[in-house]
Amino acid sequence: MSTAVSTSRTQRDPALTGQTVVLLGGSAGIGLETARLARAEGADVILVGRNAERLERAARAVDAQSTAAFDATDVDALERFFEGQPKPVDHVLVTAGGPHYQPLAEMDFAEARRTVEEHLWLPLQLARIALEAVRPGGSLLFMGGTGGRRPAVGLTVGGTLTTGSPALVANLALEIAPIRVNLIAAGFVDTPLSASILGDQLEARRTELRETLPIGRVVGPEDVAALAVHLMTNTALTGATYDIDGGQQLLS
Asked: How many domains are contained in the chain?
């Protein structure tokens, strides 16, 4: 006598089906990779950036619902964009802007001021807009870093923003609840932005990290995207900072 054994594989539904994710800085790197993963989880994605041509290429790559080309630090343009959405969006990830490394004696104050706008004023303005533009229970996600936590020459602006961003996010999580607000603090991530900063030193940096990081490899934008989508879907998480650096902070 034979007994038939049937097996079935448990399949889960996509985690973001029917939801809309806005990526401010979504044409490359972490923003684009998060858009790709959000689409795989069933979301409609909207890409925002300053370069219209690059946005259109990115939109085709991830089958984005739409794009919008403007400077996210322009509060009037930001307000018009969200007012133009037919309904509240579900999640917003901000990857616009980058780190600031300049010794005080060489500091370009216009550039430094822009960095402050990207990492302080933009989150504040977006949070106020989100009260009407993001559905209750949705989320705002901001990008920060871990490298500025240790004082060093050239990190006066970047270090101040790095250490202040967790407090900003924690307070915003109370101010605009039940919308959730979280911060992703990344170490080195192998993105086009990192390549533009390091230039011909990029490959040496990759090699160093592969040899020294506890994970034995370099952190990529897909790693950060996976964390971002998790923070969108896990509704118990708000007001916190989540480090993703492959163990870089554990090294002396």
From this structure: 1
